[in-house]
Amino acid sequence: MARYDFATHRLYVPADLSPDAVVPLEPGALNYLLNVLRMDEGSRLLVFNGRDGEWEATLRKPTRKTAVLVLQRQTRPQEATGRIRYAFAPLKSARLDYLVQKAVEMGVARLTPVLTQRTQVHRLKDERLQANIVEAAEQCGVLALPALEPEIRLERFLAVLPPEEMLVFCDEDADITDPVIALRQRQPLAGITVLVGPEGGFTDEERARALAHPGLLRLSLGPRILRADTAAVAVLALVQSVYGDWTGSTVNEM
Ligand code: SAH
Questions:
Q1: Which atom of ligand 1 is nearest to the CA of 196?
Q2: For ligand 1, what atom is nearest to the CA of residue 223?
Q3: What residues does each domain of the chain span?
Q4: Which CATH superfamily is domain 84-247 in?
Q5: Containing H/E element for 218?
Q6: What's the gap in Å between 100 CA and the centre of ligand 1?
Q7: What is the pLDDT of residue 64?
Q8: 147-205 pLDDT per residue, tens
Q9: Is 194 helix (H, G, I), strand (E, B) or coil?
Q10: What value does the mean pLDDT of the chain take?
Q11: What's the rounded Cα separation, in Å, for the pair 237 and 234?
Q12: Which pick of 13, 35, 101, 131 has the fewest CB atoms within 10 Å?
């Protein structure tokens, strides 16, 4: 049997999940299941809430216009959240949607929008970011939803970043060295914070502040300048494969 059942639609619900629980459907979810996915009485789907794992559920329609989900059995236990926090300079709308969705797929535990001097976006729409987190989790079977942190200015972010936290600083000005060797040479003692700048890059003043952090690991992502959303996928692949859950060992064993 495949590890994941991707044939069955997966739906995020905020409610607690337990055997035989009856989960009411909010209007948005109700409309989506009945009118978009054309589900009906008896339709089967998988639900998760980010806390209780993934559960098999059956759609029940007590009336023509209402529907509830009746839970049967848990199909997957709740996943532990990892220890990678992704700190990013917000990008313009579609690229930001993409960046957030990829970070969720890549298994980050926390998402921190960091406002830098060249950040082009200043009013973040949290509900849009949250919707992207949920959409990526539903599509990719992610059960541990990353926490979306409040936006913070870079200098404040670096000032309060604990000294024992590893700061993987993606620096487009860094000398090109093997990123895998650079990561393997360090053993993160606590959490891992990855920092990627805006389309316009970091200013020299911002770079100096990041380079001064005690947990600094300055990382080059090769000889080409990547778009910030490309950099997100590239650095998270490296960090997951050296320190994270791509190694095959669980976070607790690290
Ligand atoms: N000044 C360039 C850099 C911006 S790229 C420009 O305007 O296009 C956006 C961010 O992606 C950078 O701040 C950096 O965090 C990351 N990045 C892109 N290419 C990189 C590379 N080759 N090495 C390290 N980080 C990189």
A1: 15
A2: 22
A3: 10-76, 84-247
A4: SPOUT methyltransferase, trefoil knot domain (3.40.1280.10)
A5: strand 216-219
A6: 17
A7: 84
A8: 999 999 999 999 999 999 999 999 999 999 999 999 999 999 899 999 999 999 999 99
A9: strand
A10: 94
A11: 5
A12: 35
Which residues, at least 6 apart from 127, have a Cβ–Cβ distance to it below 8 Å? none
Answer yes or no: are the C-beta atoms of 90 and 97 closer than 8 Å: no
Cβ pair 95, 233 in contact under 8 A = no
How would residue 254 be classed by pLDDT, with cut points 50, 70 and 90? very low
pLDDT, tens only, 51-85: 999 999 999 998 888 899 999 999 999 999 999 99
Pocket residue to mutate for ligand 1, from 154, 183, 225, 229, most atoms within 8 A of Cβ: 225
Q: Is the CB of 194 under 6 A from ligand 1?
A: no
Report the separation in Å between the CA atom of 232 and the middle of ligand 1, taken as the mean of its atom positions: 10
CATH number of 10-76: 2.40.240.20
Q: How many residues does the chain have?
A: 254
